[in-house]
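Priority: medium. Attachment 1 of 2:
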């Protein structure tokens, strides 16, 4: 469901905006963006429960009052949570960090055959992908693109390794495939894109 075509959601966000008029413009827009993001993700996970989701968020006046009392933290709406796909993605990237650490240790100790430059080159996609775990934040849509590209490259490298007889790389293939699946999930795309304004529709 698109936020743009949902009258109930639009009315709810408009009410919050009116009640939060005492907030600085930037804080007010961030509050509305976070609320809109939460609603869209919740609607994806629980289709057809729009009224229940809005009821869970609470009365617009209460939300605005809480935001005003919170000061610098006003942009955090109640009941907002990271979608499960993003939590799973973060966990997999943490696992990939461990894999990269083990691989770097193996390179330093000379456990892997072949030229050092080649091994470093094949390790780069995994290193770049794993580094994304430190920068994941809603609204950073470019990170989803860069993480997708680096993960595809990591998938290709691991596939080549398996073709060369390195069967341990199957783990890397499965990891990369799962990360790509999570990146393609709609709730993940909504979270990465954020919501620039209450009228922004999903894609």
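Attachment 2 of 2:
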């Amino acid at each position: 469901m698109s936020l743009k075509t949902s009258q109930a959601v639009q009315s709810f966000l408009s009410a919050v905006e009116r009640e939060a008029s005492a907030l600085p413009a930037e804080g007010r827009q961030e509050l509305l963006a976070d609320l809109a993001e939460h609603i869209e993700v919740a609607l994806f996970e629980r289709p057809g429960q729009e009224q229940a989701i809005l009821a869970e968020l609470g009365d617009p006046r209460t939300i605005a009052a809480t935001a005003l009392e919170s000061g610098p933290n006003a942009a955090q709406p109640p009941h907002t949570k990271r979608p499960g796909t993003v939590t799973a993605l973060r966990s997999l990237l943490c696992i990939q960090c461990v894999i990269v650490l083990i691989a770097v240790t193996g390179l330093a100790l000379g456990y892997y055959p072949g030229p050092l430059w080649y091994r470093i080159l094949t390790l780069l996609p995994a290193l770049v992908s794993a580094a994304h775990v430190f920068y994941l934040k809603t609204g950073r849509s470019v990170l989803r693109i860069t993480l997708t590209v680096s993960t595809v490259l990591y998938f290709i490298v691991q596939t080549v390794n398996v073709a060369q007889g390195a069967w341990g790389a199957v783990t890397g293939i499965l990891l990369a495939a799962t990360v790509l699946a999570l990146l393609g999930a709609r709730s993940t795309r909504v979270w990465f894109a954020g919501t620039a304004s209450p009228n922004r529709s999903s894609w």
